[in-house]
Structure formats: structure tokens, C-alpha cells
From TrEMBL:
<dbReference type="InterPro" id="IPR048254">
    <property type="entry name" value="CDP_ALCOHOL_P_TRANSF_CS"/>
</dbReference>
<dbReference type="GO" id="GO:0046474">
    <property type="term" value="P:glycerophospholipid biosynthetic process"/>
</dbReference>
<dbReference type="GO" id="GO:0008444">
    <property type="term" value="F:CDP-diacylglycerol-glycerol-3-phosphate 3-phosphatidyltransferase activity"/>
</dbReference>
<keyword id="KW-1208">Phospholipid metabolism</keyword>
<dbReference type="GO" id="GO:0016020">
    <property type="term" value="C:membrane"/>
</dbReference>
<keyword id="KW-0472">Membrane</keyword>
<feature type="transmembrane region" description="Helical">
    <location>
        <begin position="32"/>
        <end position="53"/>
    </location>
</feature>
<keyword id="KW-0808">Transferase</keyword>
<keyword id="KW-0444">Lipid biosynthesis</keyword>
<protein>
    <recommendedName>
        <fullName>CDP-diacylglycerol--glycerol-3-phosphate 3-phosphatidyltransferase</fullName>
        <ecNumber>2.7.8.5</ecNumber>
    </recommendedName>
</protein>
<keyword id="KW-0443">Lipid metabolism</keyword>
<dbReference type="InterPro" id="IPR043130">
    <property type="entry name" value="CDP-OH_PTrfase_TM_dom"/>
</dbReference>
<feature type="transmembrane region" description="Helical">
    <location>
        <begin position="7"/>
        <end position="26"/>
    </location>
</feature>
<dbReference type="InterPro" id="IPR004570">
    <property type="entry name" value="Phosphatidylglycerol_P_synth"/>
</dbReference>
<keyword id="KW-1133">Transmembrane helix</keyword>
<comment type="pathway">
    <text>Lipid metabolism.</text>
</comment>
<dbReference type="InterPro" id="IPR050324">
    <property type="entry name" value="CDP-alcohol_PTase-I"/>
</dbReference>
């Protein structure tokens, strides 16, 4: 059922993406803070949709389908916009590419394993990767609009690199687990 609270939170995360993207096209420091606030609100819904689904025992097929897609759409859109608007240094485009490639790899792997009826739960390290990534991105959205005492741009890029390192580790862990199942299956 679409109208469960977790599903509404997930759908809201998808619907806010165009608003976040729009903030990149409007000049001004305050608009960057609006984009940051919208991203943070979306990231918070990611936590609460899962929390409410488990707590109320209202996990749905739609929610299981939409939740990871909503996350990937949100992160991908922001990474692309940060890159397109030169809000990350050229060298920090590399962790953005690593993050995007890992998301595609893991999505494909999960889809393949689902056909074999094999689940691939999210690891604790992957949750840390997500937390660091969800801290890096709003920090980079604000970037130069941050107060002088807060080095948001360099801090955001360091966090992005940290997320990329964890992305490589967790991507390898998922791939290794997936390959084991691929070898076991005729």
C-alpha cells in the first residue's frame, strides 16, 4: 500500500530531488543553505522510513523496491550537480565516480542475487559509508557559503574521500559475497 508512512517518507525523498537540483541554478548563499536543509531533511527520511517500517511491521514490497532507489537517486543527483557546478575540486570528482560506480555495481548484484532468491543485507560498514556520505554532501552543497570559521569545502571533500574509501571496501565485500553465490549456482 502506497499510503503507509514509510512509503510516503521514501516518496518524499524522491520528490525533493528536483528542488535540491533547482537550488544549484539560483545564485546566493541563502539558497545553498536551503539546498543543504532539503538534503538533510531527505537524509533524515531515509532513517525514519526504515525505522517506522520495522517498528510498525509495515515493510512493503513497494518500500523495499523504492527505498534503495530513492537513496541512489538523491546521492547521484547531488554528486552530478556538485561536479557540474564546480563545487568539488577536479581531484574530488574521483571519489564521486567511485561512489556512483559502486552504487551501480551493488544494484546490479542485488538484482542478480534476487533472481536466485538470495538476499544481500546492508553491512555495518556500509551504514558508516552512508553516514559519512550523507554528511559530506550537504557540507559540499553549502561549500563557500559557510561561515569563515567553518572550512566546509575542504571538510566536505575529505569526507567524500572517506566515503569513497569505505565505498571501495564495501563494494569489494559485496562483490566477493556475490561471486561466491555465482560460483555455487549452475
Amino acid at each position: 500500500m502506497v499510503t503507509t508512512l514509510p512509503n510516503l517518507l521514501t516518496i518524499s525523498r524522491i520528490l525533493v530531488i528536483p528542488l535540491i537540483v533547482a537550488t544549484f541554478y539560483i545564485e546566493g548563499s541563502s539558497v545553498r543553505w536551503v539546498g543543504c536543509a532539503l538534503f538533510i531533511a531527505a537524509a533524515i527520511t531515509d532513517f525514519f522510513d526504515g525505522y517506522f517500517a520495522r517498528r510498525r511491521n509495515s515493510v512493503s514490497n513497494l518500500g523495499r523496491f523504492l527505498d534503495p532507489i530513492a537513496d541512489k537517486l538523491l546521492v547521484s543527483a547531488v554528486l552530478l550537480m556538485l561536479t557540474a557546478f564546480d563545487r568539488v575540486s577536479q581531484v574530488s570528482v574521483l571519489p564521486a565516480v567511485v561512489i556512483l560506480l559502486r552504487e551501480i555495481l551493488v544494484s546490479g548484484l542485488r538484482e542478480y542475487l534476487a533472481e536466485l532468491r538470495i538476499g544481500m543485507p546492508v553491512s555495518r560498514l556500509a551504514k558508516w559509508k552512508t553516514a559519512i556520505q550523507m554528511t559530506a554532501l550537504p557540507t559540499l552543497i553549502v561549500g563557500d557559503a559557510a561561515p569563515a570559521w567553518l572550512p566546509a569545502q575542504p571538510l566536505g571533500e575529505v569526507l567524500l574521500w572517506g566515503a569513497a574509501v569505505l565505498t571501495l571496501i564495501t563494494g569489494w565485500d559485496y562483490m566477493r559475497a556475490g561471486l561466491k553465490h555465482m560460483r555455487d549456482t549452475p
